[in-house]
């Protein structure tokens, strides 16, 4: 069982000369029920999203267009994952510090979330995150 660690999940890909098609449906491809979808687009060159972690929220991130890097930290080590295709995505469990940078021109990052938007679920301070994640281990 790897679903409690960040990992890449391949999505179905229906190849077609008219254009390929991929899909995600509750909750066959990803290990949570989807409550919310948001996307990040029109990112100016060199811009990055500040890091944060979620107390309870699970996420699945797909590069719908272009590419970017998701930088993950579990409280001990950092990993950089480059997402560049729309037929796979990155599962990010709760209590994972993550930031996004290195956006290519016209990239679109789609994020599926297990919860409705809740500012109280965010941990925005890395030191607080490290303390909490240490206590969990
Ligand atoms: P946020 O998740 O804080 O992005 P980042 O940490 O990368 O800056 O989102 C930025 C703002 O967008 C946040 O202050 C509130 C709003 N927002 C919503 O209203 N609903 C959502 O689902 C998300 C993701 C953000």
Question: How would you sum up this structure in a few lines?
Answer:
Helices cover 8% and strands 41% of the residues.
What structural class results from the helix and strand content? mainly beta
Largest sheet: 5 strands, antiparallel
CATH topology: Jelly Rolls
Helix count?
1
What compounds sit in this structure?
thymidine-5'-diphosphate
Radius of gyration: 15 Å
Give the integer mean of the pLDDT values: 94
The number of domains = 1
Helix content: under 10%
The CATH H-level superfamily is: Jelly Rolls
Portion of residues in beta strands equals 35-45%
Q: Could you give the order of strands across the largest sheet?
A: 1-9-6-11-4
Overall 3D form: globular
Per DSSP E runs of 2 or more residues, the count of β-strands stands at: 12
What is the correct CATH architecture?
A: Sandwich
Order of helices and strands: EEEEEEEEEEEEH
Note the gap between the termini: 18 Å
Secondary-structure map:
Layout: E1 7-10, E2 13-14, E3 21-22, E4 36-40, E5 49-54, E6 59-65, E7 68-73, E8 78-83, E9 88-92, E10 97-101, E11 108-113, E12 122-123, H1 126-136
Task: Walk me through this protein's architecture.
- The structure is a single chain.
- The chain has 137 residues and is mainly beta.
- It has a single domain (7-136), classed as Sandwich (Jelly Rolls).
- The longest helix has 11 residues, at 126-136.
- The protein contains one helix and twelve strands; from the N terminus they run ββββββββββββα.
- A five-stranded antiparallel beta sheet has the order 1-9-6-11-4, with no helix packed on it.
- Strand 7 and strand 8 form a beta hairpin.
- The site of thymidine-5'-diphosphate has 6 residues, from strand 4 and strand 5.
């Amino acid at each position: 069982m790897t679903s409690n660690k960040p990992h890449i999940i391949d999505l179905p890909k229906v190849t077609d000369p008219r254009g390929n098609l991929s899909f995600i449906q509750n909750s066959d491809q990803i290990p949570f029920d989807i409550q919310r979808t948001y996307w990040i687009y029109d990112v100016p060159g060199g811009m990055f999203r500040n890091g944060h972690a979620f107390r309870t929220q699970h996420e699945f991130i797909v590069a719908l267009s272009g590419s970017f890097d998701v930088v993950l930290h579990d409280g001990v080590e950092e990993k950089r994952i480059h997402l560049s295709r729309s037929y796979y995505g990155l599962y990010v469990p709760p209590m994972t510090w993550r930031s996004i940078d290195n956006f290519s021109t016209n990239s679109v990052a789609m994020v599926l979330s297990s919860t409705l938007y809740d500012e109280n679920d965010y941990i925005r301070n890395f030191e607080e995150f490290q303390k909490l994640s240490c206590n969990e281990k």
